[in-house]
Structures are given as structure tokens and as C-alpha cells.
DNA sequence: TGTGAAAAGTTAAGAGA
DNA sequence: TCTCTTAACTTTTCACA
């Protein structure tokens, strides 16, 4: 990928609503050249979409936790992600190389909701869980990709 | 927060570049009413920004890992996040209630870079680390906030 | 909080190098 | 792959309910 494309991606990571005109000013390209390049980045799957970033606290979800998930029965077919997909509190789901099989990141309003959520996770996927509560978030979503 | 605001936030989580005109059509509001509401959501800090979402693989960072961080010397002043802030590979930094003090999510190009990164983390913050490699990501960034 | 209207700015698509 | 052009659309601001 070209340097110009990298710069466009970097700018759009910082401000996903930046206009093609401003992207052009920042890169020295014409508006339509920017437009074409961004469209190509989208088509190639480098840019997969655009999203508002919201404050979970402001939306009433101040409590985050990381949950390690281990299947009870290792002989079960491993369809844990599918079994958990409908649970909207689970923001991220990683399959990992560790003592656990999966690590989930969840957000809820308060401790009672976390208790309830854990019960739903355990019964939906037939797993045991180990939960680590997040006390504070020095930063999040800083796009390591920005370093590219 | 009102139901209309929730719907606007939900729509902008899904498509952060949606026009005010289209947001108006989706909510039944006039363009300028949408504009005012979105501006207020931004001012109140509910919407904190907009970002392109990119594929880390397409950017050449296919290897993710979760790193548990524990200070060597518990009597040290705890400024681990500040000491790590300059390391751009660290996408998320959580302070947690567990045997470890922090959990980091990082992205790198290949195993060698992970080795190098761990050395930099340990020496920058005077910590020990325990690393869990991510094998696959069934989903990520699904905005639990969408459930609001 | 909302509306509608008008000016200023942006996007999208095509022709041409 | 770039620029330029032009029509269609979107944003922004304002007066007013």
C-alpha cells in the first residue's frame, strides 16, 4: 500500500467524517483523486466502514469486564462464538491460545447486570468463566493501525 | 436520553458517515432538527468522534495479543499507563481488578515484533508480562452500546 | 425543540490526459 | 492514476413557531 493511502487511512481513523475536500488539502491531491482512492480502499477492504465513537458511560454502561471462557466439555463441538453471538453486551470475542479458549469484553450498567450476563453466557455456551473487572480505561481503541 | 437520540446514536454507530438528510428520513425529523440533536450529542460527550474502521490484516498487522501486566516493585509509584502511552502498538489499556494490574491489547505484524514489543513494555514500565496470543477474532467492536 | 428556506460547500460521475 | 467540470446533493445558518 502506498504512502498516500496510508495517510488517507490515518486521517480517516482520526476523523471519519472528514470531507474529501479537506483530505485533498491535507494530502495535496485533488478532491476527486481522494474520492477515487478512498473508494478503492473501501473496495479492497482496507477501510471496512465508518462509525461514531460513543462514550459508554454517557450511554449508561460504565462497567466493563474481561471474561475468560473455558468449555466444560472439551469433546463438545466448539461453536461457542455462535452460541454467544446474540448476547449484545459482548463487544469483542477473541479465540485465544491460553488456558482459556475465549476472552470476551463486555459492558453493562452495574454489577447486578454482570452477574446476570455471566449466567446467560454460561448456560448459552456450556462454559465456565473467570471474570476480570475493568477499574479504569487509560485509553481504548487507539488504533495501532495509526502507526502504519 | 431520549429515544430519538438513542436512535440517532444507533444509526451513527452503524454508519458514521450517514448524512443528516438520511438520518432525518430514518427518524422522521427534519434535516436541521437532526443536525441540532447530533451537535448536542457531540457537545454532551455522548458522541466523542467518528472514525473509519480498518482491517488490521489489510494494514499488515495480523497478529493480536492480550498482555497481562504486573509491576515488579509494588512500592513504585503506579504510572504504568503514562510509561506505556508512547508505544503505538498498544491499542487498548485497561486497569483491572485481578492478579495483574493492567491488561493491554496489542497488534503487530509478526511474532518477532511481539517479542520486541514485550521487551519494550517490560523495560519502559518495569513490569512482568503474561501474553495470550489471539488466534482468531469471531467479532470485535460490536458496540454493546448498540443495545441501548 | 422544532420547521423551512437559502447560501455555501461537498459528492459523485464522466471526459480527457 | 490524475485533473477538471458540472449536476445533484448536503451542510450550515438563520428567522420564526
From TrEMBL, chains A, B:
InterPro entries: ArsR-like_HTH, AsnC-type_HTH_dom, Dimeric_a/b-barrel, Tscrpt_reg_AsnC-like, Tscrpt_reg_AsnC/Lrp_C, Tscrpt_reg_HTH_AsnC-type_CS, WH-like_DNA-bd_sf, WH_DNA-bd_sf. One of its GO terms (cellular component) is cytosol. Keywords: DNA-binding, Transcription, Transcription regulation. CDD domains: HTH_ARSR. One of its GO terms (biological process) is response to amino acid. Residues 1-62 form the HTH asnC-type domain. Pfam families: AsnC_trans_reg (PF01037), HTH_AsnC-type (PF13404). PROSITE patterns: HTH_ASNC_1 (PS00519), HTH_ASNC_2 (PS50956). The keyword ATP-binding does not apply. GO terms for molecular function: sequence-specific DNA binding. PANTHER family: HTH-TYPE TRANSCRIPTIONAL REGULATOR LRPC (PTHR30154:SF53), LEUCINE-RESPONSIVE REGULATORY PROTEIN (PTHR30154). This is AsnC family transcriptional regulator.
Amino acid at each position: 500500500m502506498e504512502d498516500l493511502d496510508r495517510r488517507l487511512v490515518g486521517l480517516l481513523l482520526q476523523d471519519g467524517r472528514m470531507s474529501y475536500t479537506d483530505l485533498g488539502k491535507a494530502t495535496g491531491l485533488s478532491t476527486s483523486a481522494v474520492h477515487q482512492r478512498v473508494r478503492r480502499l473501501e473496495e479492497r477492504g482496507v477501510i471496512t466502514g465508518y462509525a461514531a465513537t460513543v462514550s459508554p458511560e454517557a450511554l449508561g454502561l460504565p462497567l466493563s469486564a474481561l471474561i475468560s471462557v473455558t468449555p466444560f466439555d472439551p469433546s463438545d463441538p466448539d461453536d461457542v462464538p455462535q452460541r454467544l453471538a446474540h448476547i449484545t453486551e459482548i463487544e469483542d470475542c477473541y479465540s485465544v491460545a491460553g488456558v482459556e479458549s475465549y476472552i470476551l469484553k463486555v459492558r453493562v450498567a452495574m454489577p447486578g447486570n454482570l452477574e446476570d450476563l455471566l449466567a446467560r453466557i454460561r448456560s448459552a455456551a456450556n462454559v465456565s468463566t473467570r471474570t476480570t473487572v475493568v477499574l479504569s480505561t487509560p485509553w481504548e481503541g487507539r488504533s495501532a493501525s495509526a502507526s502504519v
